[in-house]
## 1
Amino acid sequence: MVKKIVTMSLALVMVLSFTACAKEAEETGEVPPPTENVWLDSLRLIPIESDTLRFGVSINDLRLLRSALGIPLPAPDASAKELEAYRLQLLGGKDGTNWLYPDHFSGLDRYGDAEEWQQTLGFTWANVDQTIRAGTPAPPHYYQAVHGRFDENTIDQAVRSGPWNDLLEDVSYKGIKYYSWGADDGQFNLARRSGVRNLGRGHRMALIDDYILWTVYTDSLKKMVDSYQGSLPSLATMEEFQLLAQGLAELGTYTALFASPQAGPLEKTMLSSLASLWEGRTDDEVEHLLRELFEDSTPLEPYRALATGVGVDERGYFMGVVLVHADSEAARQNVRLLEQRLQEAPSAFTGEVWINQIEDMEIKSQDRLTLAKLYGDIARNWFEFYTDYDPLLLHK
């Protein structure tokens, strides 16, 4: 049976341990150079905070997806109909069988409209190679960005002639020019709703190199700038996240979730989430049922951080899993324990053991990493298992 443990949260420990990095970067004023790892490059935008560690960072790399599935880019003069067809190719059709986690700013989610995005922001998803989202699962307290092939003049013309131009302000922060629309309060203005601003909120937008940053609050945008320039420690400076990025690159996923471990104890947040799905049961009843479900299943050895993603190879779609441990012995133990857990542990939502969603699997250790490829329907759960508190990777 899982025992409740009272500890200092990993998120707080990580935030405190990287305070020195911020001071050193601020003194040198150096912008960290890009790396050869597509995941690590974009993690430079995301500051180390309890929310970015707890709720994680989700990234879709459309370059890797296009390469894996042979999806061609649309022509520069592609019509709105052709762009929509391309969007559906990326998603895997209307059923979304490529298992992306479509973000809003790129236009890949259900609000996406090629003509509106072009007229309002000066780009569409055809210009995007990577989407980044981090922080709390609901607006307005999160970070969004896209990486791709953008034309600064086209974007400038669009934001000056498009909707909300009556509220547009040109602002600068640490040498970076950015656009600011509306009050910096996150309040709804339903009279000004659109596809881009589906709740009628004001936003801030900045172009840095090949990235476009998009936030509700000015403070959030400034933190992204500081992280990218190195005056605030980013997730890319953390050894655990560097190792996670290396692991995902080896597995060959085209999506990524970077996060702190799934909690060992059955937290109240987990119970509340599940209780909302199991209608008619109280939290106490859910907790009792969960303990019955997990009493005979094997928890993993503790690990320091996790990454998951979905990829595809000659054997089909797979869920990639990377766990970072304190030492290589724990990583080796979790090879056996993860396979055992998949055989024994049920999903909290279906009540069925995870192995029923798996057609094949490869699990190995590499120094401090446990690396896994899980083939089959489980691939669709690469993101939701974490955000929905389904304790697939529960540890001691």
Note: The longest strand covers residues 305-313.
## 2
Amino acid sequence: MVAECHDRLFAVVVGGAQSWVVRHDRPMSIQFLSLTDLPKSNFSRELVGDDHGGVPASVIFVEAAPGRGPSLHKHPYAELFFVLEGEGTFSDGTDSRVVGAGEVVIVPPEQPHAFVSSGEGPLRQIDVHLSGRFVTDWLEGS
């Protein structure tokens, strides 16, 4: 075994294969969180960007049982939905569309929208709000 140090990285060679290992003796400015570190709401966990050094986005990690989801609402910023598992029905208040794993939904600022977990299992998705805090105008009962 041969070890070679370059600032924070160590090159470690074992049996002819080289790997790089990061030293952790100095604090990093990158934050690392577990989902369990985030506050829980009805069917999700929420990361508020402003609470983490002024990050200009907020994220909702959704795990909604069938029949669950937010009622019609809008935001003054765009929102992106990344569907990971399950099936959801999205609505703009007039029309609706069913989406599934691997699909992305883009909602522009001020566009009314709602979704409900409409599959047989839970809907898992990541919702990215392009704002450091959540600002929601509920158009129907929340």
Note: The longest strand covers residues 58-64.
## 3
Amino acid sequence: MSITHKRFLYCIYFCVFCSFFVFTESDKKRNRLLSGETEVTQTTVAERDNKKTVIDSGQNENTDNRPDEKKDHLIEKDTQSEGKNKNNGFSSIQDNTLMIADGNRWYYEAFDTNGRISFAVLYENDIELERKTCKYASDNAVYPVEQITVANNIIEKINYTPQGKTLRVEKYDQDEKLIEKTENTYNTDGNLIKQMYTKDGTVKKSVWSFAHDKVISETKYCNGEKTAFIEMHNGKRIVHLYKNDREVFVTEE
């Protein structure tokens, strides 16, 4: 199936998804009128499935979230499509843009000359819910070297390796003050071997050891002080807890 067909099907799925809310709300209104209740409606936002990097701010986890791949955004040139569905939804597929709208919600994507996503925005009424921009290191790059997302007054900047692995995540408030930062280090096999997480002046670090691409241990630090050492053997975890660089507790999980 070509990329253009995939995009066209995506538009159809989106419109069907939005129509589900339209019919659901209509049924609710009719039932409320019949029962004499006061009509109260609440608009729900159909959010786009966005593969964003999520890193647990309370835990250091071996998490690898990749951006949308280039192949998912390549389109055939000189192919254009527009249409409206029966619920007054609108969709438009051009050679370098994609637009989908339904009611008071609309989503727009723009692509660079190599067919890679460079800009996206999601609106409800006149309110911008999310904005994303992507930068690429070269014309041959599949993954963006940097992706910036603005949503809920938070600016999230993500840097990726050429293989699409999350290298660095920084979050800023609306005044561009750094809130938290996560930095990842990988070995030559692409395994996450170190992660640094900084927030409110506290620096947490996790270091993983591998044997034939299999994790055999994890060591945790807080502000440079060793807090835990975890051994992994045949599905079991032996946890060693430390305080002032001395072992104070051992348990098996």
Note: The chain is about 15% helix and 45% strand.
## 4
Amino acid sequence: MPEIDEYLDVSVYPIKSAYLTLDGVQYGTQIDTTVANREVVLYEYSFEPPFHGAILWAYFLIGASFTSLVASNETVVWRAQVRTVKRDWVNLFRKTNIYNVKASWKDAKMEGYARAAQANFSRVRFDFRVLFQCATLNGVRGRIKNNTMFRVVWLAEEAAE
């Protein structure tokens, strides 16, 4: 176990699949939109390591794939959020449109460093989620990709209870 006041650096690849694939790409559970213009949780994860502490920096790579369930092209709106446990959600990126989603799967990716030390995302333990929506009832299906990951560096200050 790390000593208190030690920097911890952890990378997490939370998407797991039971089967290997020819191209190495695996996906989480497929999720459908069921109500027009209402966000649906595509994926959520709680990062709960044995030591708490102040986040120095965090890097996120988020991959997803979407397909239309209706005849027309769809526009998917998606975003990812984080929060220190029991705080309000903070956007990792603002709502972003993915245009011309058709019957074949269309990939989307966002990555970069999250601004740490903000009021609702400043400490380890934290929650992470990906949301999406479309304007059509039962219009889109989404799935999170196994390239989704985050890396977080923090100063271990106290053992989790």
Note: The chain has a mean pLDDT of 90.
